[in-house]
């Protein structure tokens, strides 16, 4: 079936369920009760009449009850079926009781010619929702990285020359977004278009980094270099305006749980007085050892990390600091890692053409590039119980067309694809269109 090229509109609070079907019967027909008046001091003749009446009543009740049961059986509610299905694919690796994968295309209308590859890698996506900044208009100033139009689920929610084009996020449930505007040297943070924090005395538009907004929309996180003197500063992470971590050197990445109560960060740690450093994993303020990538589960209970060796040719994957496997690295990167609330995890090894799920290797095609440093876009997604995965590349180096591989077999996806995301057995495919 040809995928729907139009943008999917979600009208419910849970974008993963959009249903249509026969409405369950609302007929509340009930049998009327039989009223019988009985003399409490019967004569022999009346007792005989009473017995006859009771027999008649019993027969009426039995017949009425059977008829009502038959009515309810013939008028029971029909099951509701999904109206968002574009393609159903039965997994070859999933248990027999699991459902087929439903592929749901979410089209991001940019109004820009696709040949410009704009704004590739720019959208933040979650459960069928998305947010991005359109910098194609006259509002944008490329020298300051300011100005543009913020688009959430296809609607322009803010447009101005003070918009920071590098800092905008979406909550993990897709229901909230946050962005920054600059007023001279003050960075102003907005959640759902409401000002929640102002950070003054910033030297440039890139000084403050917006990290996350919570599923409730009540919490937000950001970071910047806090001056400690005229000549020095520390890098710090803030939640709701309060500092929760600081580091003397660079903070590369920060990943938060969906309520922002836990986080993991990749930071640079000085190792000696000769300016040698190491990249380490910080979990809720505690150094967990070396790492170059780290992600935390949505509930914050576990995290997964990848640490390259010194030559960046091999890497070790760990869950909560315990090694679960190794990968071959090409040009120091390109592999993906993922972890869920229930402890299921996965990682890719493109050089060796493998996906490892909970310690079991699954072979993937060699046509998926093992070196993603030259403009290709390798994508990977794992569903919550690890019964489904997809891996591939929509723009392979050297051409040859897109390559997608799901649950042990090749699949076809259409369009300029920005991202992939599972929600249980629904696969969201985010793609661009002008």
Task: Explain the overall architecture.
It contains one helix and 33 strands. Helices cover 7% and strands 44% of the residues. The protein has one helix spanning 44-74, and strands at 19-20, 81-82, 87-89, 101-109, 124-126, 129-134, 146-152, 155-170, 177-183, 186-191, 194-199, 209-213, 220-227, 233-239, 242-247, 251-256, 263-270, 277-283, 286-290, 293-296, 303-308, 314-319, 322-328, 337-339, 345-349, 354-357, 360-363, 378-382, 389-393, 403-406, 409-411, 416-423, 426-433. β17 (263-270) and β18 (277-283) form a beta hairpin. Mean pLDDT is 76; it is low at 1-43, 55-97 and 113-121. The protein is globular, with a radius of gyration of 30 Å. The strands form eight sheets. The chain has a seven-stranded antiparallel sheet with strand order 5-6-7-8-9-10-11, with no helix packed on it. The chain has a four-stranded mixed sheet with strand order 3-4-33-32, with no helix packed on it. It has a four-stranded antiparallel sheet with strand order 12-13-14-15, with no helix packed on it. With 434 residues, it is mainly β. The longest helix has 31 residues, at 44-74. The protein starts with 18 loop residues before the first strand and ends with a strand.
